[in-house]
Amino acid sequence: MRSAGRSRESSVEDLTTRARIRDVAVLRFGRDGFGASVRTVAADAGVSPALVIHHFGTKERLREACDAHVLQEIRHAKRESLVEASGNRFLEYLATAEHYAPVFAYVMRSLQHGGPLAKAFVDHMVEDAVAYLADGVAAGVIVPSRDEEARARYLVLSALGAGLLSMALDPPDDPADVAAMMRRHFDAITLPALELYTEGMLTSRRMLDEYLLYVSDPPGAREDAS
């Protein structure tokens, strides 16, 4: 019988191996799409295909684990940039944006692949966006919305749509080199996005007032502070 200490060591080793397989799967799926085989992922991780199946059961379960990990990375990055980042912290985030290139590539592949899993993935992104936007509202750095879920969905779909267009119109020379394309994308959108989010675009709220009169019962309607 193995000692308790040996069991704990094996458990930690299993978790480390599982995380390594998941991380290389994110890279491989982001580069080649979800047609990449378990055998290829196993070779990238330096393990046998049987060990991949041991940890995840099926390729579909492996993708679910990758989805969960990528969503967690996005959630952390968004909270850090929207709620916690200020001054030099925000500049540091922009300077290291390429660090998220594997996540960006994985998300783009998921959208391109389509289907129920892609829809569920986007729905999870919206749910997470509702949560970190609420944190921003509570922290006083984001203005409340009449419909928080609708705003979160709009922001997520806008960001994903812009990313997909960048991938289509300015594809990386090599599928493995998403970081350079991502840097060009961020450089192109950061200034106009910050202008829109911080200064706005319209000089009056006339269109909003007309729309609120047009809709009989706007969702999440609230009294304006103005």
From TrEMBL:
**Record's keyword terms, sorted:** DNA-binding
Keyword Membrane assigned to the entry: answer is no
Record Gene3D superfamilies: Tetracycline Repressor, domain 2
Gene Ontology MF terms: DNA-binding transcription factor activity; transcription cis-regulatory region binding
Record-linked InterPro entries? Homeodomain-like_sf (IPR009057), HTH-type_TetR-like_transc_reg (IPR050109), HTH_TetR (IPR001647), Tet_transcr_reg_TetR-rel_C_sf (IPR036271), TetR_C_25 (IPR041484)
From the UniProt annotation, give the residues forming the signal peptide.
none
Q: Which PROSITE patterns match?
A: HTH_TETR_2
- DNA-binding region, residue range(s): 37-56
Positions of the HTH tetR-type domain: 15-74
Lineage, top-rank taxon, reads Bacteria
In its UniProt entry, what is this protein called?
Answer: TetR family transcriptional regulator
